[in-house]
């Protein structure tokens, strides 16, 4: 199959729609195995390490687990990320702003080197794009959107808004939470509006972050200060404050000084005075789960399959494992000459991923309900439970293995 065909119609082994972190990782996995891949992305120009602006951190960050780090290392993206900016964290501290409950985790207790890294999404994406830029097995189609989807006996046709038509035995939706391809495939989604918006910005604090990710629960509103080291300065933090839509709007309208004061107060000045150093954005928090991840010749990955409350920083970590598992199943089938777009092959991917993703979505909902409870008995139980658990190292170790992504049978690229 000629992936470099510049005529209007072209055939590939796999077409991926959406070149975010998950789509780009999937593209690199498949292309490195020798499959011909087309990557269709709505943005005009792909981010590359050389085009990153690193003077100020960008406000969208992710807490990447060691499992994600291993996948990014397998893809050879990690070294470029380290050269750009990644901030390891060795400890986590979570407390209840409504009481005395708290829990602390450390890498030492969990028996690992780091609990994870805070990384700007642009840094991850640029490093992944560098791996697929100029790859002989990849055709990148920028500035294009999918307009129509048709089924054939051997695969799917995609029609793009630039008039191009692409055919493949497998098309993958990696086009995010509001996936257009998922809608074209008429896959239903269960939606759970969490009644919150996440406010994100970057701050510099009076006290260094000491490689610790911190989160306080303020009546069910998690406020996270995630450590960032910028050119050796370890006073920076990335903020994620999940709060009511009205309050989020009001916070975004504050002056930088007033927002810094509001953040400092809400965070009980645990890191001293807070100075806002970046732009402020807000995102509505809606948990979504696709009713099916696969159809004949079609699969969903990442936020197109599930979007999750950011309070435990799991979204892209789950999406990267989706990409690794789907790639593993598809490459195995392709290598043995089996039809890799066949629903039986794709169902193996869904079986391996749905349970893990569903469990994490349920857990986030439970956390939000538990920490949002105003009932005094529940508040007491929550505080006693948190502090009691803090003293139980074996239980904490199990929790840490979950949080660091070490769950279930991981694909080879993540081990
Ligand atoms: C405030 C906040 C904090 C978060 N923190 C964390 C965290 O700490 N850890 C974590 O793991 N996750 C976190 N997440 C979640 C994480 O950001 C997402 O899970 C992740 O970005 C999803 O990646 P994706 O590649 O699946 O989708 P996206 O990042 O949404 O990428 C989709 C891509 O598809 C393209 N596209 C869209 N529509 C089309 C179309 N029709 N045709 C072609 N291309 C299209 C887009 O341009 C984009 O490039 C957070 C989310 C929020 C909102």
From TrEMBL:
Keyword Transmembrane set for record: yes
InterPro entries associated with the record: FAD-bd (IPR002938), FAD/NAD-bd_sf (IPR036188), Ubi_Hdrlase_CS (IPR018168), UbiH/COQ6 (IPR010971), UbiH/COQ6_monooxygenase (IPR051205)
Pathway: Cofactor biosynthesis; ubiquinone biosynthesis
Essential cofactor(s): FAD
FAD-binding domain location: 13-354
Record field: transmembrane: 12-31
Keywords: FAD, Flavoprotein, Membrane, Monooxygenase, Oxidoreductase, Transmembrane, Transmembrane helix, Ubiquinone
Family per similarity comment: Belongs to the UbiH/COQ6 family.
Protein name: UbiH/UbiF/VisC/COQ6 family ubiquinone biosynthesis hydroxylase
């Amino acid at each position: 199959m000629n992936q470099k065909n510049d005529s209007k119609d072209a055939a590939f082994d796999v077409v991926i729609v959406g070149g975010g972190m998950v789509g780009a990782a999937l593209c690199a996995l498949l292309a490195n195995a020798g499959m011909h891949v087309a990557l269709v992305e709505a943005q005009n120009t792909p981010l590359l390490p050389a085009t990153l602006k690193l003077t100020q951190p960008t406000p969208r960050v992710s807490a990447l687990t060691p499992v994600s780090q291993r996948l990014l290392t397998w893809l050879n993206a990690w070294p470029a990320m380290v050269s750009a900016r990644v901030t390891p964290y060795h400890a986590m501290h979570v407390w209840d702003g409504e009481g005395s409950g708290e829990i602390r985790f450390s890498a030492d207790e969990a028996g690992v080197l780091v609990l994870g890294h805070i990384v700007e999404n642009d840094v991850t994406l640029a490093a992944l794009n560098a791996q697929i830029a100029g790859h002989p097995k990849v055709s990148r189609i920028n500035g294009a959107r999918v307009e129509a989807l048709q089924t054939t006996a051997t695969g799917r046709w995609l029609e793009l808004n630039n008039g191009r038509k692409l055919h493949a035995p497998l098309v993958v939706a990696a086009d995010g939470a509001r996936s257009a391809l998922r809608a074209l495939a008429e896959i239903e989604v269960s939606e759970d509006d969490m009644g919150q918006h996440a406010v994100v910005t970057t701050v510099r604090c009076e006290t260094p972050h000491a490689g610790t990710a911190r989160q306080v629960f303020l009546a069910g509103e998690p406020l996270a200060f995630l450590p960032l080291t910028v050119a050796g300065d370890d006073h920076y933090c990335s903020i994620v404050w999940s709060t009511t839509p009205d309050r989020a709007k009001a916070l975004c309208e504050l002056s930088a000084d007033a927002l810094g004061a509001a953040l400092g107060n809400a965070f009980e000045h645990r890191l001293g005075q807070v100075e806002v150093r970046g732009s402020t954005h807000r995102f509505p928090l809606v948990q979504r789960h696709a009713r099916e991840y696969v159809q004949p010749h079609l699969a969903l990955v990442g936020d197109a399959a599930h979007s999750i409350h950011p309070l435990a920083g799991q979204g892209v970590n789950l999406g990267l494992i989706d990409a690794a598992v789907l790639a593993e199943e598809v490459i195995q089938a392709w290598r043995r000459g089996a039809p890799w777009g066949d629903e039986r092959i794709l169902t193996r991917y869904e079986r391996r991923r749905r349970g893990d993703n569903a469990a994490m979505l349920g857990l986030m909902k439970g956390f939000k309900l538990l920490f949002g409870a105003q009932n005094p008995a529940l508040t007491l139980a929550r505080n006693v439970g948190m502090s009691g658990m803090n003293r139980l190292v074996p239980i904490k170790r199990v929790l840490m293995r979950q949080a660091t992504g070490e769950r279930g049978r991981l694909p080879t690229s993540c081990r």
